[in-house]
Amino acid sequence: MTHVAESSENSPLERFVRSIPKTETHLHIEGSLPYEMLHELDPGKFPENPEFRQPGYKFPNFVEFEDLLIAHAMAWYTSAERYFEASSAIFRKLADQNVKYVETSVHLAITDFIDANGRDIVQAVKSAAPEGMDVRVIGALTRDGYTDTMKVTIDSLHTWDELDGIDMHGREWLELEDWAEPIWTRFRDQGKIIKVHAGEFGGPEKIYEALNQLGAQRVQHGVRATEDPELVKRMASEGVILDTCPISNEKLQVFPSMKDHSIRQLFDAGVICTINTDDPLCFANTICDEYLALASELDFTKSELGELAKNGFMYARMDENQKTAFIEEIDTLVGQS
Ligand SMILES: [Zn+2]
Q: Catalytic residue numbers?
C-alpha cells in the first residue's frame, strides 16, 4: 500500500485529505506513542526503523501484535507525567493533520503494573489537548480484566466524572463475562460513550454480542459484519457507528489486502463508518495515510472521503455550532476540489 511520505507527497489528493477537518475516534493512547520518543529514550533497545514499522510488514497474528505493543508501550508509560508527555506529542501530530476531535482510550489495567492512579492518567491525557482540539477519554477494559486487583476500580468507574466513555478491547475471542453488562449499562444510563471492539478477530456473533448485551453505539472495527448481510442491514437501519481502521486490519491480516477490505461494502450499504488509526506505534500509519489508502485501493472519491470525515463530526460529542462549522467546511472543500 502507498504511504503519504513515499509517493503521493504534495499530490492534489494528499493536499485535499490534509486540508479537510478530521476526527480520530478509535485511537489507543498506549498504541499511539510516537516511536521516535522510544528511540530517544533507549536507542539500543529501540533502533530506528524496526522491521514491524516497515510499509510491507504484516503481523502474523493478534497475540504477537499485542505482545509487541505491550513491550513497547510499557517501556514508556510508567507514570501520569509520561502519559501527559506522550499525549501532547500525539495530539500535536494529529493537529498538524487538521484533526479537530479525538476520542482516545486508556488501558485501565496498566495501573496494576505502574505506580500511577487511573484518574490521574485520564486527567493527564485530557490536559494535553491543544487549543482547537476536543479530546474525550475512554476507559478501556479487557474481557478477562475483572481481576481481584482491578475489581474495586472497575466497580467505581461510573463515579469518574472525567471519563467520557467505556470500551472493551484486547482478545476479542475471549468470552464475555457476567461482570461487564452492568458496568456498560451504568455508563449508558449516564449518557456516556459506549464502545466495544468486535468484528475484527471475532465474527458477526461478537458484533451481535456488543450490540445486544453491551448496548454498543460505536463498534470498534466491526468490519467482519459483512459475513452476515442481516447484521449489515440492522446496523445501517439502527445507525450503529463503526470506528474503522483499515491499515490496522491490513497489517493484522483481517483481510488479505486493502483491496479486499469490507469498508467499501459497508459504506455502500449505508453503514456509518469513521476512519481512524488504532495503534500508529505499531502500524506506522497516519490519519492521512488511511484516507489515501481508501482512495488508491478502494476507489473512494473525494466526495466519499468527505462523507467519512463528516461522519466523524456528525456523531462527535462536541459543541453543535462547531460541529456544523466543520461539516460545512468539508462540504466547501469537496465542492472546490
Ligand atoms: Zn482498537
A: 200
